[in-house]
Amino acid sequence: MTLLSLQNMKTQIGQYHVLHDVTFDVPQGGVFVLLGRNGAGKTTTLRSIMGLWQPQPGSVMFKGQDISRLATADIARLGIAYVPENMGIFGGLTVEENLVLATAKGRFDQTRLQRIYTLFPALEKFWTKQAWSLSGGQKQMLAVARAIIEPRDLILIDEPTKGLAPSIVAAMGEAFREIAQDTTILLVEQNFNFARSLGRDMAVVDDGRVVHRGSMADFAADTDLQGQLLGLSA
Amino acid sequence: MMNKVSETLGRLGGVNLLPLALAAVAFVLIGAPSSWVTLTVAGLSMGMMVFLMASGLSLVFGLMDVLNFGHSAFISFGAFVAATVLAALSTWLDGGWMLASAALALALLAAIAFGLAAGLFFETVIIRPVYRDHLRQILITMGALIVSEQIILAVWGGTPVSVPRPAFLEGAWIVGDVSMEIYRLFAVGLGAAVFVGLMVLLNRTRIGLLIRAGVENREMVEALGFKINRLFIGVFMLGSALAALGGAMWAGYETLITPALGGEMMIVVFIVVIIGGLGSIEGTLLGAIIVGLTANYIGYLAPKLALASNMILMMAILMWRPSGLRPAVK
User: Fold this and answer.
1) In terms of residue numbers, what domain contains A117?
2) Which of A190, B36, B95, B113 is the most buried (most CB within 10 A)?
């Protein structure tokens, strides 16, 4: 079943056409990976889905509803969470305040909170610390935790492993596998090995267009295609 | 060594110690304790009134990224509205403590109510079409300021308007050689109460949490499902109301006001917001107190430097801390 469907999505930022033709379907469940070189349009794709850039009308369908003209807040309320590349945490707020802000009613569901403590024990340890004082990995944990503190249908995550130590990347991968059991993840990632270990389906964006769609297993097996689309060498 | 000194100062309060350091230096330079106390109370009271005027602008600047040069119109209107109410209730001012208090409360509430309504109008009609466009913001808010001053001229005329004060706020408390104006002490108390109220709002409520988050990252607040535009209206109205309250208090302090009042105060207000750090209420209070104390101390010690003192202060602080003393984390 398709959860999110992008059809010929075009996005213009100022006078620049950044996305020309982005078309792919994200099935419900698991991790869908969006790959591409720097500047290909991956982040703009996520931001356009979230309404932070305005895409062409009728090009973004979520659970069968056109969301391309909705405000960002309305899109979020439909059950889509966003973890931007810069993590978007509020540095002046404590870990607790960052998380409570993302709850629907201003209080925690204890079951979900315990799940977060299990996935990211560091957040419980630094509960009352201001978020700016956390390490890069802890900030990324907080950003992901904020996305799952309420039940969501879809989480958009933009390059979560960027600049993180290998041990943190491994922990993040474990967390994503656990989260993907009940929530669909649309992951933008440059680290191909990380993406390959998580993704079931994938697409490649280049110069604002989707140039390849398919299963991650097939793409991972085709080193020529990886080299051609991502510049990866065998 | 320097790091240790810096760490120790940080633990003791960091930049929050600046007003104390300033007062200590002034105590030595002034020499006469009674004059020093009078000047310190005057500086604190001026600081608190400027804080009222500046706190809203700082939040609006920090949260909405709006350069509102029309902010001074709220200060002027607050002053004139309060003066009008006090003049209309002048018989109450001489009618005992209860009636005089009621008249003062009504005057301040009228200024606040006007600020709220004017803020709603200003945000929805003037500011909203120019979000994210600083040049147009400057032009349109300057235009709105000029129109506002002309409205004040048309309604209240160009001659200075006198502002009656309740009898219980007249005079001074004399303790030994020290004289402290009662109105100034009242301004310090009111400013402190507003500061505490704002801190409770910002740190103990969900709306406050949203404002603090929005000052840092508006886009992310929206991505969490909150309509930032509604928050903008609320903060703008709050900022306008505080400016009007500050104007009303300043009117009582000056006792003779002209339509140029807001424009004259605006330079000081901008200096306070800039040196305090955008979007930070604690920074605004700190900046306002430092500006108030500096103006009074320099006015006494080197009157010829009084006009330049705030500018010199701003330059010195910005060279030391380019983002201001206590900016909201960005």
Assistant:
1) 89-151
2) B36
pTM metric for this prediction: 0.85
Whether A165 is covered by a domain: the verdict is yes
Please judge whether A72 and B216 are an interchain contact, meaning their C-beta atoms are less than 8 angstroms apart: no
Residues A161 and A145 in one domain: no
Choosing from A134, A151, A168, the residue where a domain stops is A151
The CATH number of the domain where A224 resides is what? 3.40.50.300
The chain A residue lying nearest B205, using CA atoms, is A106
Domain end position, chosen among A151, A166, A190: A151
Q: Are residues A70 and A131 in the same domain?
A: no
Q: Give B329 to chain A, closest Cα distance, Å.
A: 5
Closest CA to B271 of B301, B308, B224, B232: B308
Q: Are A1 and A28 in contact (CB under 8 A)?
A: yes
Q: Alpha-carbon distance B314 to B325, whole Å?
A: 11
Q: Looking at beta carbons, which residues of chain A come within 8 Å of B219?
A: 52, 72, 88
Q: Let me know whether A116 and A212 are in one domain.
A: no
Q: Does B224 touch chain A (CB under 8 A)?
A: yes
Length of chain B: 330
ipTM of the complex: 0.93
- Pair (A68, A160) in one structural domain: yes
| Residue type present at position B210 | L
Q: Quick check: is A84 in a domain?
A: no
Chain Cα centroid distance, residue B17:
20
Pick from B113, B178, B326, B289: which is nearest to A92 by CA? B326
Residues A134 and A162 in one domain: no
Q: How many domains does chain A have?
A: 2
Q: Contact A92/B224, CB-based, under 8 Å? A: no
Two tokens, residue A86: 């810069």
Give bridge partners of residue B256 from the DSSP assignment.
Answer: B162
**Token digits for B198?**
């704002």
**Chain A residues whose beta carbon lies within 8 Å of the beta carbon of residue B223:** 50, 52, 72-73, 76, 81-82, 84, 88
Same domain, A72 and A158: yes
In this complex, how many residue pairs, one in chain A and one in chain B, have their CB atoms less than 8 Å apart? 62
| pLDDT tens digits for range A52-65 | 999 988 789 999 99
- Which residue of chain A has the CA closest to B202? A93
Please tell me which of the candidates B210, B212, B224 has its beta carbon nearest to residue A76: B224
Mapped onto helix, strand or coil, the DSSP state of residue B114 is: helix
Tell me, yes or no, whether A21 and A113 share the same domain: no
What is the mean pLDDT for each group of 10 consecutive residues in chain B (330 residues)?
69 85 96 93 95 91 85 95 95 87 96 97 92 89 92 93 91 88 94 96 93 91 93 93 96 92 91 91 95 95 89 93 82
In angstroms, what separates the C-alpha of B143 from chain A's closest C-alpha? Answer: 28
Q: Are residues A146 and A159 in the same domain?
A: no
User: How would you list the strands of the sheet with A80-83, edge to edge?
Assistant: A65-66, A60-62, A2-13, A16-27, A209-215, A201-206, A31-36, A184-188, A154-158, A80-83
